Amino acid sequence: MAQFTDMLISSEFAIGATHYEDFYPQEWHAARIVLTVTLANRVTTQAIVDTGAPWCIFAPDMVQDNAQSAYVPGVTLSVRGISYPGKLVRMKIGLLAELGGDDLNVEATVFIPTLPPGVAWSHPNFIGLDGFLNRVRFAVDPPDNVFYFGPV
Q1: What pLDDT is stored for residue 26 in this prediction?
Q2: pTM recorded for the entire structure
């Protein structure tokens, strides 16, 4: 693992690397790439890397106070077959370089679902393609569960 980390960082493909989990908590039935990320340099949480998700999606109570103002209000997004109204906001999402190199902060697009009063968010957090992954160069080393990252 150290060999790949040194090679990818010295070649400037990546600026950092971190371990990832194989499963999202309470979802042991499906293998995933689950990263620990920071939101607005304040909140640390886990999120599934999902190249099929148009934007990042986080539990509303987790991001509401950390987001910049909405730049696209009135958006609807289908999450696991359920349509949710919400808004798109800008937010810094960080990847921590726990295995070497430098951390990476990306100004990302985040969908914040609007939930009826008293309803809790019951889905995982997602790192989406548009507005985050398309702004990051990344590689995955499955035998060692390592996620390499760098700016585009």
Answers
A1: 78
A2: 0.89
> What residue ranges do the domains of the chain occupy?
2-151
| Average of per-residue pLDDT values in the chain | 89
Q: What is d(CA 98, CA 106) in angstroms, rounded to the nearest whole number? A: 17
Residue among 124, 132, 126 nearest 106 (CA): 132
Tokens of 78: 């289908």
Kindly report the three-state secondary structure assignment for every residue of the chain: CHHHHHHHHHCCCCCEEEECECCECCECCCCCCEEEEEECCCEEEEEEEECCCCCEECCHHHHCCCCCCEEEEEEEEEECCEEEEEEEEEEEEEECCCCCECCEEEEEEEEEECCCCCCCCCCCCEEECCCCHHHEEEEEEHHHCEEEEEEC
- 2-151: CATH number: 2.40.70.10
pLDDT in tens, 47-103: 999 999 999 999 998 887 666 666 666 788 888 888 999 989 889 999 999 998 999
CA-nearest of 131, 141, 18, 124 to 80 is: 124
> Which residue has 């971190």 as its token pair?
18
